[in-house]
Amino acid sequence: MNGSNEMTLSFSARSENEAFARIAVAAFVSQLDPTLEELNDLKTAVSEAVTNAIIHGYESDPSCKVSIEARIEGDSVSITVSDNGRGIEDLELARQPLYTSKPELERSGMGFTIMENFMDRFEVSSMVGGGTRVAMLKRIESKKALYN
Known about the structure:
Blueprint: E1 4-12, H1 17-29, H2 36-57, E2 65-73, E3 76-83, H3 91-94, H4 111-118, E4 121-127, E5 131-139, H5 143-146
Antiparallel strand pairs: 1-2, 2-3, 3-5, 4-5
């Protein structure tokens, strides 16, 4: 593959669209021929980011939109999941394992930890009242990705 390839996806903040987002990103990344483990890592990280946007960013308001941008360059894929929701008041606290602002929903509080551990690079930025942006990068080590 010469140069880069990219896609943008925007969808309603509905919990049933989390699976759609995960599958769409997996289909896009499949051109790099990732291993099953790499693909599962990507799908899980996307699922966590999208779920956070829907539940925490928009408080499950289906009239709002979640956006995903994905870009393949060489053997790496970068994925950005963003919302224009309420933002995160205390980002440092939110990144702590087992912390959840929605214990009544039986959330595990492991979303950011999972994303950080499954990806090669992970960054989150947020502004109260201005939304949240999760940027992730994963290097795909397949022979197809290495020789493109």
